[in-house]
């Protein structure tokens, strides 16, 4: 029977570091503390950190087998917890493939949280790991282990459980009212455009960092001369699509507001207003760097980030977090402008995530879709949750720009 949420306790170690190594992992019910699964194994000669990662991987695999959607992974390894959270670099080459494998598993769940706990709170997994190390060393376990009693891990009224219930309630309401795109009945029948909210999604014009192919997140870099020309051409294209619009909404960064201000006079001259939820992803310490520079400096972290939208760059923001806030912004526009057209000027990551969700696509879509600067995409959002994507990355208006 599938479970909604679980807690993983994982550990690993070696006799000698490196030496005979093993890991242990326990999967528990978060309310009762009941043990749902145990995993342990000897892994030959390895280091403590390798064994700890193997314990985490085994726990995530067991949670996936149980059908869990939400996971809290608890470990007494500060290194593994900090690396999986993206706060510490993965400098040892032997740990990078293990971190990437763990990140791939993380991507199978709706939500995963990593928590450091002291060793005395990780006794069950520690005992399993020690038994596995004894087996790897070719000797009998040092002492029999009594079965760990069930214990409460997160009470029914804890903030985490309350938040989970709120999410579940919202999902149930969406399904009941027909506003969940995943449950909206499929149909080939054309929808009247006046019933929906039309979003004209515009990526900002060119900046120096787009020319140089550098990560450009929260840094407020202006448009280039070519970028300003692109904004003017895009304004004319948007005016062809919608001579008058209800609103022009922009990311607060200047490369977007300058693009939006070029568009507004040609579509009825509504005031440009900004929405922080439309801002670009925070790329953390990668901001302003090229992909090659990131590959050289943070190879393990980059692999983990590319493998899962739930992994953030060091001191940055995950695409899962960007999707959540961008989704909030889109929902507000749907509610505020029923049956009207809104121009949304934003960045490559938020627009890709909106289109991914509109098309009910997987995360691979994010790496396969190319969005040009000043490209235009159009989608209609209907009150019952229906979505119609009209165009993606229209650039015909740019000509030779």
Structure description:
Helices cover 37% and strands 19% of the residues. It is an alpha/beta fold and 401 residues long. A six-stranded mixed sheet has the order 8-7-9-6-10-11, sandwiched between helices. A five-stranded mixed sheet has the order 3-2-1-4-5, sandwiched between helices. Helix 11 crosses helix 12 (348-358). Residues 143-184 have low confidence and may be disordered.
Sketch the major β-sheet: 6 strands, mixed
Q: Give me the number of helical elements.
A: 13
Which class best fits the helix and strand makeup?
Answer: alpha/beta
Order of helices and strands: EEEHEHHEHHEHHEHEHHHEHHEE
Mean pLDDT: 87
Residue windows where pLDDT falls under 50 for at least 5 positions:
143-184
For the termini, the CA-CA separation is: 57 Å
Strand order of the largest sheet: 8-7-9-6-10-11
Shape: elongated
Quaternary structure classification: single chain
**Number of separate strands:** 11
Comma- or semicolon-separated keywords:
single chain; 401 residues; alpha/beta; 6-stranded mixed β-sheet; 5-stranded mixed β-sheet; 11 strands
List the helices and strands and how they pair.
Blueprint: E1 5-14, E2 19-28, E3 35-46, H1 48-65, E4 70-75, H2 78-84, H3 96-106, E5 111-116, H4 123-136, H5 159-177, E6 197-203, H6 208-211, H7 225-241, E7 247-250, H8 254-263, E8 272-274, H9 291-297, H10 299-307, H11 319-336, E9 341-346, H12 348-358, H13 364-368, E10 376-381, E11 387-394
Parallel strand pairs: 1-4, 4-5, 6-9, 7-8, 7-9
Antiparallel strand pairs: 1-2, 2-3, 6-10, 10-11
Helix pairs in contact: 1-3, 3-10, 7-8, 11-12
